[in-house]
Structures are given as C-alpha cells and as structure tokens.
Design a protein that fits this description.
The structure holds two protein chains of two kinds. By secondary structure, chain A is an alpha/beta fold. Chain A is about 30% helix and about 15% strand. A seven-stranded mixed β-sheet of chain B has the order 3-2-4-5-7-6-13, with helices on both faces. Chain B has a six-stranded mixed β-sheet with strand order 10-12-11-14-17-18, with helices on both faces. Classes of the chains: A alpha/beta, B alpha/beta.
Amino acid sequence: MTTQLYQIGTYAAGNRLLDPDDRTEQSRDDRTNAITSGHRACRGCGEALAARVVLDSAMRAAGGRMVTVNATGCLEVFSTPYPESAWQVPWLHSLFGNAAAVASGVAASLRATGRDDIRVVCQAGDGGTVDIGMGCLSGMFERNDDVLFVCYDNQGYMNTGVQRSGATPPAASTATTRPVGTSVGNAFGTGKSLPLIAMAHEIPYVATATVADLHDLEAKVVKAMGMHGARYLHVLVPCPLGWGTASAETIRQARLATQCGLFPVFEAERGVVTATTAIRHRIPVEDYLRPQKRFAHLFRSDGRADVVAALQDRADRYIARFGLAEPTEPSEPIEEESS
Amino acid sequence: MRRQIEGSKAVAETVARCRPAVVAAYPISPQTHIVERLSELVASADLTGCEYLMVESEFGALSACIGASAAGGRTYTATSSQGLLFMAEALPNASGLGLPIVMTLANRAIGAPINIWNDHSDALSQRDAGWLQLFASSNQEAVDLHVQAFAIAERTSLPVMVCMDGFVLTHAMEAIDVPDQDEVDAFLPAFRPRQWLDPDSPVTIGAMVGPDAFTEVKYLMARSQIEALDTVAEVAAEFGSAFGRDSGGLVRPYRTDDAEVVLVVMGSTFGSAQDVVDELRADGVRVGVLAITCYRPWPFDEVREALRGIPRAVVVNRAISVGAGSVLGRDVRLSAEPGTDVLDVVLGLGGRPVTRAALRGLLVDALAGQLPLDELYFADLDHEVIADQLDRDREEVAP
C-alpha cells in the first residue's frame, strides 16, 4: 500500500519535514502560549485548540503588542475560573453580546492615546457572533474598526448545554431541537452564513478555516494581522460534547466537514472571494454526518434518507457556489512504502 | 465667562474640556444636542486626541466605553430613557469591572406609552446598577457636575451618571459659565487607570467568579460605593475653592432650619421650589426644600441631618415603582428619624410641568395636614379622565 505524505497543505505530515520558516507557530519554542495549560476545556475541544493557534500566531504577527477581547461562552468560562486564568495576553471579558463593540472601544482608545501599535483581537463563539452579538459585530464591520474578530463556530450553545444557535446545521439534534414527533431535529431554515454577511460589509478581509488545517489557519491569521480595519475569521471547531463524537475525532470531523462541502474554506477581500480551498477527496455528506450522535436519528432503521439528501443538496450548492470541486495544483507528494 | 448657551451645548463643551479619549454614543431625544455638538467638536479638531465612535445602539455605546476605559482612555457617553434601558446589561458590568466611565443622562420617561418628555423613571430604574448618580438642579450645576464627575469617577474607579432633566435643562438657553480649558486642566489631572490591558503586563479582566468569592466581590463593591460619598463631597469642596461656585456635593438644603414642612426634590425642581419657599417664608410660613444631588450612593447621614426635627417631609417623586409605591420616598424613609412624617407625592411624570403653584399647593396642604400619609398621592392627576376610563372598563367587562 502506498501512503502519500505532503510537506505542506491539508495533508502535511508534520513540521519536521518542513523548512523552519514554514513550520507552525506551535512548533516554536518561543511561542506565546497565549492560552496556556491548566484550563478546563473538555478533552478534544476544537475551540481550545483553535484559540491557541490563532492567538499565538497573532501574537507573533503583532510582535507581542496585542490585547484580546472575549465574549461570554465556553472559551471565557473554561479559561478564567477565578482566581485562575489561562491567559498570558491582556484579556478582557465584558458580556455575551457586546464583544465586537468592546473591541471597537479598545481600538479607539488605543488610537486616541497614541498606542495604536497595539493590535486588537476579539474572540467569540458562534452564539456570540451570529446571534446575540451580531448587532455590535455589524457595527464594527460597518465602521471598519481596526479589529480582527474570530468566531469559533461549534454550531451551538455548548456552554449552556448544547442548545440550538443560528449556526446549528439543519436536522441536528440539540437540547432544544430534539427529533421527537414529526421533527427531524433542527429546522431547515435559510441558514446564516456570517462570512457572507461579513463580505456584504465589504470589509478588508474575511476567511474561513478549520482545526483540520492548522497551517492554513495560521496563514490566515498572519494575513489578517498584516491588514488594518475590520477583519473576520470564521473557524469551524468541532465539539465532542455537542456533536456527540469521540474526543479523538475532532480534527477528523473538521476535515470531513470540508471534504463533504458543508463547510467551504475560502478567503475574501472587500467582498470578493479571492481564494478557495478545493476539495481533493470529495465525500458524501453521509460520511460526515454518520459519526455524529446529533445526526444519529437520520440513520436509524426508520431513518431519513430524504433529510440526508437535502443536506447533500446543500453541500452540492456550496461546492458549486465556491467552486470547491475545481482541481488545483497538488503539492509534490513524498511517496513512502509502508509495510 | 458667562454666556447665553443651551444646556446641552454647554455640557458638550465642558465634556470636551475634560479631554475624553473616546466618546461613544447613539442618538436619542432629548440627549441629541449633546452628542451632535461633541461630534462637531471632534470633527473640527477643537477636541483633539479623541475618537468619536458612532455606534449601532446604546448597548454598543456603553460596550465601546467599557473597552475604551479598560484600554486606559478617559471615556464618555450620553443617553436617555429607553437608551439607558438598552444599556442595562452593560451598566453593572461597567461598575463591576470598576471602570470610571462618565455618562450624561438627559432624564426622560420610560414607555409604554412612549413619551419623550422629562421625568426620572430612567435613572431610578437603574439605581442598583452600581453607578453613582448625580442630579443637576440647573444648567450651571450640570456643567460643573461633569467636571466633578470625571474627578470622582477616576478617584473611585467607579462609573458616574450625571442626570439632567430632559428638555427642561438640556434644551434651555441661559447664561452659563462654561469653564475654560486652563481651569479644567488645573482641576482635572490626566487619567491614570488603576489597571489597563497592558501588553507589557498582561491582566485578565472579567473573570468568572463562583460562589466561593462572589459575595466578597459584591461586599467590596457596596463598600466602595458608600466610601464614594466622601469623594463626592470632597470633590465638590475642591471645585468650590477652584471655581468659586457652590456646585454638586451630596445634598442641598435650602431654608430648612426651623421648617415645619420640607419638600424633598431632585433635579430642576429645586429652582422652582426655592422660589416657592422664598414666597411662603416672606409670608412668615416656615417651609424649606432639600435637594438630593447625590442619589447613588444614598447620603444617609446628610439627609438625616437635613430632616432632623422637621415634622413633615413631602417627597416629590418623579418616578414610581409600579405595584410598590415610591422610589425616592423610600430612600428618604431610610434616613428620616421618628417624628418626621414622610409624605409621598407623585408629580411631573412624562413631562407634565412641575409648576410653582403645584409645589406651593403641596406645602400649604402639608401644613394644613391635608396630604395623605402612607399613600402614594398623585398630585397632578386628572380625576375626570380616570373616572371615565374606569367606567369604560366596567362597561366592557359587564355581560
């Protein structure tokens, strides 16, 4: 059997094969450890991993001159149970729905007092971004305030016990969308894509990423930090608790989400898509849905093939819309014979 | 130098001379002239070193102030009524985090029914939010209180709300001494935050506190509020020495010595009440008035002292606690000693004018023992309208 290993890209084998400059921030001894060990995230938490990668990369890009603002949510709760704090960067938490406005205020204050060498990164979960925080976030975008806003999207209110959010996918079972009676779980609405809403504001930079591709995530953070104005990064972070997946499956689940097309990975500048990550090994949505307990009701003996088909339609639409099926130049593989 | 100027513009120019780093505000009547003038001062570079954030809501306004203050800048906002309610979630957050934000509240009623005119429902609905609340009795005092508010806020690390009656003060033109830049600079030192989001010395602000320490945090908050009474008095005294004007402080008793009845008021009613007291005193009637300048924290000792030996205190309530009675009256009862009857009167809700005739009537009735005790008395109620409506209600429920 032949195993293909890649030096860079989605299937990168590891840092040891890369040039030092191409290695991840996490491989460096002098990384910030912006969120350090000892916090209380669940095992396999995608958000904790993403926050670590995002903030350490941002700190590198900002030359250590950075402050962070955090919405209420899992990240806030698991990182700061008084008198402990996992943060090794300046960190401010105010409320659930106001993180973007707080960050705007921080940036304005730094600018007014001549300290605008200090960069501002704002973090929130999907609830604090697409639902309760959307008013303040849209204002921050519209004013083009100098803030990088990062949404860690685990597709629900996981901190309060896995209730449905505006980012919960159709048919998912949550504590408030149980598939009982004639219900198939979460309703098929029109969906709410914050990256597209952000793009409609024509802000300098919008990108999506997942914890399955940390090189890509880091590169996007560095790119965003190299710009000024309102920037938005939407990171898919699987949640073992809320998705009903094994804690060792977090990275795989994020990868499957992109491979089936339900989570398009792309970049946009001033409202125009500038780059997409093509799907190399396309899979049916079923392969992504099946391992997750929140979709288990679709695959019972009395399962709902029609609902799975509807989700497949949705994935197909995304793939067409963002051109995710188009082949791109693969990086040179290293071929190894495995025994 | 005194000049004719609208209250709102005078306040805006005074705030500008306090050199805020960030002003974040959302327009709402009757606060609008304040923020319009400030935006103009920033745009024209008459106010430099200041960022004016035009936010998407009052919730965003106070939230931006929270961020700005935590980043170490002097921070200001202004609102009214529904705007204050929209800020409600962020109000105790600002005080809990110990952020010395200054806000002007152009006092206005709260709907429904929607009403843009003046009463004190907005401020009093947020009395427990951990903000200091100072009530201006005139536009001169409103101006002076803003200079004092920044000093008080920054010495105590607590947010301060300067309340001024909407329209009655905000839109009134009168001769006011707006302090010069030099005078304000001499009085108000540059802002030195107790802590800020310093990359060289990272702090975590806004951690989650559980049952093990929450009570202690709240105790310390309550304690620092009460201690702020001293700061309010101290700053008013310093202001008096620096500016040669008596403004602010905790309470303002007027001709209360030997009075048989004292009106207790807040805000612009104080001026009318003083006139009425003078008229009645000229006729040999022993009456006085006590203005509460510092409503939060409540000046227990000063109110007690001012009402000591006074047989009757008539509290002019410009807000009510629906289903429970008065708000200000209950606070006055905390301080009144046995022997002082506290009579609760509702007057001037939703912009109905608080006239000298009405105030005079209250004093005269109280002297004659004709005001009800232990009852919230609506002094300016149109009884005919009420009777008609109650009749209609009865007809509608009849089979």
